[in-house]
Design brief:
By secondary structure, the chain is α+β, with helices and mostly antiparallel strands. The chain has ten helices and twelve strands. The strands form two sheets. Strands 1, 2, 3, 9, 10, 11 and 12 form a seven-stranded mixed β-sheet that branches. Strands 4, 5, 6, 7 and 8 form a five-stranded antiparallel β-sheet that branches. The radius of gyration is 23 Å and the shape is elongated.
Amino acid sequence: MMLIGLLQLLFFFLGFEEPKAKPRICEPVKLETLDWDEFKWLYKQQDSTVLQDSIISYTFIRVNADGTQETKNFSELHQPWLTLLAAEIDSFQVKRDSLLTLIKSPYKLKYTSNLRDKEEQLALQKKGYSKAFVSFHNFGLAADGSITRSGKLLRRGEIFNQYGAKAKKIGLYWGGDFVGFPDPGHVQAFYNSAKLLQKYPELALEYEPFKVAYERNYFKKADIGQGDQVKDTRDLLNEMNALRENKPCACSQAIPFPSSAADLQINPNSMTVLANLKEQYIFIQRGSYGYFYPMGRWKLN
């Protein structure tokens, strides 16, 4: 232990710091192919906190290098996460419910929030009640507990430390340990989002719309020496970068309307993504309009 402490002091005085997350940039390159699965990533990666759940369909159009055109339509872009995570959800619920019996009289524990939809999560984030754009609640892997004594709701106290200790003893993670935004009533199934994506990389699709926002929040803290407060965000960004590095992307600088897209028709009730491999541009619809971008691949800056 003494050696570890000495090393920490040495790192401090020598100015060593933990490595930061690297920003991910779209480097313009020629794409020879683009599979249909990549279309949903291209659409999702346009940073936005605007929900698109009212959209009735998605149209993906690919113009091949020889000029031939193919179209596919999809009714939704979300994987059946509840099916994918069924075993994890069942395991979490058993552990969560066992906590109800571990908090003894005169205290009483009940859960006020379990599964939460995206609209609810973003509303809480916007009001400052949550730091996350995507929460474990969205996947059915978190719960918020309230503790009362003689009918009086408690906000703090040793009982919450006991609650956290009991939660961790049965394999859950406690929100009271969160750095920068402790949440003593919260328990969840995974240590952080990065650990979730390591086990279920498909879930990264849900985080992609908020990638730029996560980077903005992270670097705002890291650049003023408060990176220790956003380590979970750093881990999440690193995992997202690892999953998408060198994968196709729509570069950030929009280009003028190409003449070859003159016949493109869009509907505000559906979303269209057009990838032209012949002329190397991508169109991504945004509501009743859209933008054209150069093609590229993700690189770490």
